Amino acid sequence: MKILFYGDSITDAGRARDNLKGLYGLGCGYVRSLAEKLIGENPNQYEVINTGISGNRIVDLYSRIKVDCWNHEPDLISILIGVNDVWHELGGGRNGVEIERFENVYRMLIEDTKKRLPNVKMMLLEPFVLEGYATASH
């Protein structure tokens, strides 16, 4: 089973760009933790790919969906997106994605993916914010 993780920095987690296969291509976040568990228990059953890119918004995911998602022909796609869409909108409104446009583009991404890969399963993960330097009140 080929599992593709698609999203922003939470998915990216410092992944290697030059080699999508192997643990270095998975970064040091939740994707790698899940892959280690899956592959450790079933070494020949899973292929895990991480195409997350830090700073991405839903419009960025849609613009790169063919090369970074569809062309891999995954059996399962996990999408985690939304933090930058809101953060960049509320943090000055310069480059965020308004709620209505976010929903429209996300629906289009899902519908187009189902047309392109009719048998693919999809997991839509809910974005979240952890307290840290960028989110702490100074």
Structure at a glance:
This protein has 138 residues and is of the alpha/beta class. The chain contains 6 helices and 4 strands; from the N terminus they run βααβααβααβ. The mean pLDDT is 88.
Fold blueprint:
Layout: E1 2-7, H1 9-12, H2 30-41, E2 47-50, H3 58-63, H4 65-68, E3 76-80, H5 83-90, H6 99-116, E4 121-125
Parallel strand pairs: 1-2, 1-3, 3-4
Largest sheet: 4 strands, parallel
Distance between the termini: 45 Å
As laid out across the biggest beta sheet, the strand order is: 2-1-3-4
Q: What class do helices, strands and sheet pairing give?
A: alpha/beta
Q: DSSP strand (E) fraction?
A: 5-15%
Quaternary structure annotation: single chain
Count of DSSP strands: 4
Radius of gyration: 15 Å
The whole-number mean of residue pLDDT values reads 88
What's the helical proportion of residues? 25-40%
User: How many helical stretches?
Assistant: 6
Morphology? globular
Low-pLDDT segments? none
Order of helices and strands: EHHEHHEHHE
Describe the fold and architecture.
The chain has 138 residues and is α/β, with parallel strands linked by helices. It contains six helices and four strands. The chain has helices at residues 9-12, 30-41, 58-63, 65-68, 83-90, 99-116; strands at 2-7, 47-50, 76-80, 121-125. A four-stranded parallel beta sheet has the order 2-1-3-4. The chain is globular, with a radius of gyration of 15 Å. The termini are far apart. The model has no long low-confidence stretch (mean pLDDT 88).
